[in-house]
Amino acid sequence: MSDERSRDNSDNSVGTRHAVPVPPQNGAESGDKPDIPLEYYDESYFQRWNYSDRGLGRFSMYWFARRYYAALVRRYAPTDGGRLLEMGCGLGHLIGLLQDDFACVGIDLMEYSVEQTKINAPRAEAYQMDADDLSTFADGDFSAMVALHLVEHLPDPASTIAQVSRILKPGGLFLFATPHPDYSLRRFKDRENDAIGKDKTHINVQPPEQWRAWCEAQGFTIARHFGDGLWDVPYLPVVPKVIQFGMFGLPALAQVVTRTTFTPLSLGVNQIGIAIKKK
After folding, report:
1. Average pLDDT estimate for 242-263
2. What φ, ψ does residue 28 adopt, rounded to 5°?
3. Which of 29, 92, 235, 263 is deepest in the core (most CB within 10 A)?
4. What letters, b where the CB count within 10 A reaches 16 and e where it falls short, cover 44-66?
């Protein structure tokens, strides 16, 4: 564990470094794919687990995060005004922010998400689709693809990443965010009930090395791979939660507000990957 953390802290930009494949967790190996808990994927999903813990309104963590991810897309995606696909578009707020910069398309397993996306991103296309099967899209169809807290819900992420590579243009951006199962302070949490473990739709929570390996195997260079901060307070007994958020969470807010990528992987509840398809 300490060796992994040492690697994570050493470099947020791993462009030419080749990932060493590690055994997938959560039964992600070929032939042993986890089942999708379809019973949770309806409108009530947005009242459960992490959605129930925080607001979605103006100046909420969610509000700031969507603007942060939009800024990353604008910074790293080709500036050709091409097409952008968000897999697992949720409520549609991200592509609502990007619909004037790209020809945006959102897909989601839930009908409710598609309905909300059409409201919140009226100039985008939205379809009820499974990210396991992207065969409807042509080769090189998109300049950018986004998967925010989507890949951990997939039974076969490696297959989806291969499809992402196929339909993404050379030089195109693949931006993803997904839980880090072994971030530094998780040892102080109840792993069954923290922000990562309590969501029963998280069927493929994998370490950073695995995501790098899957991306690099499909012709991606990892431009940046970093953490989103220690926001899942409390970590310590007795100390009030609000004080702990100031101690541990403010650096995460600073990263979001400054739109930088300085947080080491080991200091993020989630890991954020910026992958560029090789030309």
Report:
1. 95
2. -85, -5
3. 92
4. ebbeebebeeeeeeeeebbeebb
Tens of pLDDT along 37-76? 999 999 999 988 788 777 889 989 999 999 999 999 999 9
- Angle 2-10/208-217 helices, nearest 10 degrees? 60
3-state secondary structure of 190: coil
pTM score above 0.85: yes
Report d(CA 39, CA 43) in Å as an integer: 11
Domain that holds residue 171: 2-277
What number of other Cβ atoms are within 10 A of residue 154's Cβ? 24
Kindly report the number of other CB atoms within 10 A of residue 94's CB atom.
Answer: 27
CB burial class (10 A; 0-12, 13-18, 19+) of residue 87? Answer: buried
Residue indicated by tokens 């403010």: 250
Helix (H) / strand (E) element for 162: namely: helix 157-167
Dump pLDDT digits (tens) for 99-139: 999 999 999 999 999 999 999 999 999 999 999 999 999 99
User: For the residues 154-182, what does the mean pLDDT come to?
Assistant: 98
How far apart CA 157 and CA 154 sit, in angstroms, is: 6
Q: Please count the structural domains in the chain.
A: 1
Q: How long is the chain?
A: 279
Residue 94 is part of a domain; what is its CATH number? Answer: 3.40.50.150
8 A C-beta contact, residue 185 and residue 230: yes
pLDDT score, position 62: 93
> How far, in whole angstroms, is CA 16 from its chain's centroid?
22
Identify the band that residue 13 occupies on the pLDDT scale cut at 50, 70 and 90: very low
The answer to whether the CB of 175 falls within 8 A of the CB of 72 is yes
Q: Which two tokens stand for residue 49?
A: 């687990």
